[in-house]
Specification:
The chain has 658 residues and is an alpha/beta fold. It is 24% helix and 28% strand. It folds into five domains: 23-43 and 209-352, MoaB/Mog-like domain (Molybdenum Cofactor Biosythetic Enzyme, Chain A), CATH 3.40.980.10; 48-71 and 173-206, Molybdopterin biosynthesis moea protein, domain 2; 76-168, Molybdopterin biosynthesis moeA protein, domain 3 (Beta Complex); 361-434, Beta Barrel (Beta-clip), CATH 2.40.340.10; 519-620, 3-Layer(aba) Sandwich (D-Maltodextrin-Binding Protein, domain 2). Helix 12 links the parallel strand 33 and strand 34 (580-581). The longest helix is centred in the middle third of the chain and has 19 residues, at 333-351.
């Protein structure tokens, strides 16, 4: 068969299989999928093992721990001083001190006493020393005075002691036979200290579940290996291994399986030797995801759900065999991690002997409108910032898509959009499910336009210990955030089309402008392209605007670059005008990879990707500050950092000028 005929046949086969969508014949709700999954699982802890105390950090106790000794094991002094009989000190006063003869013994910690404290005597004792027979109290050395007389050494006391003063009695901390730690407790440094105090060298803990992790797909490349066009590094494998470890289990990496049935079958069989098996990703050569076809061969009961009415996460496949969970997670990182934490993490916690995680929710307000797809519950990652009053929270969506690796690391939590909703309007109160941590306000909140030059300013401040939260929402989004008092700094580069003036015309009452730096915007293109080489930016734009085969990559509405681009184009709408990139780098990489032929971006991005550059206009990248926040220490430090010589030099190195 000719290669072109074979390619057409592959295309027909792919389209036919994709149209069937046989793996999604029954899309169920998240609640139904979870119920089916748990119905067939063995969620009990995976046995017991004994480990040395030095290796017990983070482990879960498999049984109650009963003390076989008293702690302390004897009456001991908690201060440096003198062991006495309290009765001998009665009536002691400044004007009528009591003198006690010192015994010929010093009781240091770790030494058993030889002499009894007889009436009228005292014994020198150090902190931790064992209280001698006859003594029932300790007086601090600071409240006494030593006196040498012809008949020996004496100590004088000017205040009386009470029985038990400055003495830790035997068993006062832990008594023999007492349950000191309970089954199911996770061992931290504090619990390990208790175990050491009762003399344990090893402890019985729940065996860590072994979780096999297999990444699938011909497009997946292991980190550290050369990347090829169209391939992606295996981030899911690393993320899942770390997440499994965080849950108290042991990850067993199986590597990357190609889209080939034999290899997949062998690796799945290997993974089933563990307590659980996780697969992610895998797009075959024209036949869709092969993983579910291999997992579909499992029995007892096998696949219990494939296709869940969630966004992200619809392709999730849940299976059980012999009480073991087998899960195929979506290939996109955000989808994979969301479904992992929602469906898999609770199962691993149970197998590791951990109690269910407690979900914390906080009320917030959505500052922007969110569209949604009806028919599926949609979960949106958000970053939280405090409002102007310091009490309310605004939930900014992290709209990076299910393929983003950074969404989980940048998110404070997520909100759910009902399956029947088509949108959630700006200003709507929402409930945000926190991702395992309380919301701690950062020292500096930066909301607005993204620029790599900003790293030169923020990087130094972060290195000095300042905490910073930066949300890239575009210039108009940052300006709106500043008006609402939700940020300290709003980076903007907005040009007034009528006057060509940057930023100042957009200020509202209560907002101030801090001068930032200048950067050159222009047309980026692949070097050697005759449609752009040797022309000015205006000439090139006019020449290519009407060429159907000259594709523009535009910027998102609301960005300063989009305003500049629209002014350059006037009424023209070149091919690709409605294709929007969310950053200067995204414009440059689209041109570098030949997905587009030109776009408007900063000169630094053109240099980074080896592109040609036609200067268009020097723009002002400035910072809007709410007047009410101008005197905050973090804001003052940010403004001062702009004038630091090291920051100015770093900006110059990126072609940005103060």
């Amino acid at each position: 068969m000719h290669s072109s005929d074979r390619s057409r046949e592959d295309i027909r086969r792919f389209v036919a299989l994709a149209a069937r969508q046989d793996q999604f014949l029954e899309v169920v709700s998240g609640e139904e999928a979870r119920a089916r999954f748990h119905r067939h699982l063995d969620l009990s802890p995976r046995g017991e093992e004994r480990v040395p105390l030095s290796a017990s950090l983070g482990r879960v106790l498999s049984a109650d721990v009963v003390a076989e000794v008293d702690v302390p094991g004897f009456d001991r002094s908690v201060v440096d001083g003198f062991a006495v009989r309290a009765a001998d000190t009665a009536g002691a006063a400044e004007d009528d001190p009591v003198a006690l003869r010192l015994n010929d013994e010093v009781l240091a910690a770790g030494h058993a006493p030889d002499l009894t404290v007889e009436p009228g005597t005292a014994t020198v004792i150090a902190t931790g020393g064992m209280l001698p027979r006859g003594a029932d109290a300790v007086v601090m050395v600071e409240t006494t005075e030593a006196v040498e007389r012809p008949d020996g050494l004496f100590v004088t006391l000017t205040r009386p002691a009470t029985p038990g003063a400055f003495v830790a009695a035997a068993g006062s901390d832990i008594g023999r036979g007492e349950v000191v730690l309970r089954r199911g407790q996770t061992l931290t440094s504090r619990e390990i200290g208790v175990l050491a105090a009762i003399g344990l060298a090893e402890v019985a803990v729940v065996r860590r579940p072994r979780v096999a992790i297999l990444s699938t797909g011909d497009e997946i490349v292991a980190p550290g290996q050369p990347i090829r066009t169209g391939a992606v590094y295996d981030s899911n494998g690393a993320i899942l291994a770390a997440a499994v470890t965080e849950l108290g289990a042991e990850p067993v990496p199986l590597g990357i399986a190609p889209d080939e049935d034999g290899a997949l079958e062998r690796l799945v069989a290997q993974g089933l030797q563990c307590d659980a098996l996780l697969l992610s990703g895998g797009t075959s050569k024209g036949a869709g995801d092969r993983s579910h076809r291999i997992v579909a061969q499992l029995k007892d009961p096998g696949i219990v759900a494939h296709g869940v009415a969630l966004k992200p996460g619809k392709p999730l496949c849940l299976a059980v065999t012999g009480g073991k969970p087998v899960v195929i997670l979506p290939g996109f990182p955000t989808s994979a991690m969301f479904t992992f934490h929602s469906f898999v993490a609770p199962v691993i916690r149970a197998m590791a002997g951990l109690p269910p995680a407690t979900a914390e929710e906080v009320p917030a307000t959505l500052p922007v409108r969110l569209g949604s797809e009806r028919g599926r519950t949609e979960y949106v990652m958000v970053s939280l910032v405090h409002g102007a009053d310091g009490d309310t929270l605004a939930a900014y969506p992290l709209s990076k898509g299910s393929g983003a690796v950074t969404a989980f690391s940048h998110a404070d939590g997520f909100l759910a959009i009902d399956a029947q909703a088509e949108a959630v309007e700006a200003g709507t109160p929402v409930s945000v499910h926190l991702l395992g941590r309380a919301v701690a306000p950062a020292d500096l909140i930066v909301v607005g336009s993204q620029c790599i030059g900003l790293n030169a300013v923020l990087g130094g401040l972060i290195g000095e210990g300042m905490t910073v939260k930066a949300l890239n929402v575009g210039s108009m989004g940052g300006l709106a955030s500043a008006r609402r008092g939700e940020c300290d700094i709003a980076p903007v580069h907005l040009m007034d089309p009528a006057t060509g003036t940057y930023n100042m015309p957009f200020l509202a009452p209560g907002l101030e402008l801090v001068a930032g730096y200048r950067r050159m915007q222009g047309i980026v293109f692949r070097r050697g392209d005759p449609r752009f080489e040797g022309r000015t930016a205006a000439e090139a734009a006019a020449a290519v605007a009407g060429l159907a085969d000259c594709i523009l990559i535009n910027r998102n509405a609301g960005s300063g670059t989009r305003i500049l681009t629209d002014r350059l184009l006037g009424p023209a709408r070149p091919t690709g005008y409605w294709t929007q990139a969310k950053s200067h780098n995204a414009v440059a990489v689209a041109v570098a990879q030949n997905r587009a032929d030109w776009g408007v971006a900063i000169e630094t991005a053109a240099t980074l990707y080896g592109l040609g550059f036609l200067p268009l206009q020097e723009e002002h990248y400035d910072f809007v500050v709410p007047a009410a926040r101008r005197d905050r220490p973090a804001v003052r430090r940010f403004v001062e950092a702009l004038d630091r010589p090291d920051v100015a030099e770093a900006l110059r190195a990126m072609s940005f000028l103060r």
